[in-house]
Known about the structure:
- It is a single chain.
- This protein is mainly alpha-helical.
- The chain has one domain.
- The protein contains six helices and two strands.
- The chain has helices at 2-20, 32-49, 51-57, 59-64, 69-89, 98-119; strands at 24-27, 92-95.
- This is Phage holin family protein.
- Keywords: Membrane, Transmembrane, Transmembrane helix.
- The chain crosses the membrane at residues 33-50, 57-81, 93-119.
Amino acid sequence: MNFIARWLATAVAVAAAAWIVPGIDIVGGDNAWIIITVFALVLSLVNIGLKPILQMLSLPLTFLTFGIFYLIVNTLLLYIASWLTDGLFGMGLHIATFGSAFVASIVISIVSSLVNSLIGDK
């Protein structure tokens, strides 16, 4: 149940980022919510699988930049999830620039943490 709650929180966060951030567009179909939920599922799986590895590899840079490089790792994971959903399903998010992906990763982090705190662990 915990994974489903986090997945739905990520879906709400991705929808907010697609709505707020210019340069982030939903592509690949007519029903935006299906595309967002599929993208959120892929992003959640990428976060489970790759995020701990990338955090460990980038730990020295994260330490030197006082944690700011952690945002670059989140941006890279957003790019990976976008590439995977486009390659596997032919849909997902189109990311125009690195700046829009960077801002979108910040929005997704903030919104998903807010939604997760509202949902709670139960």
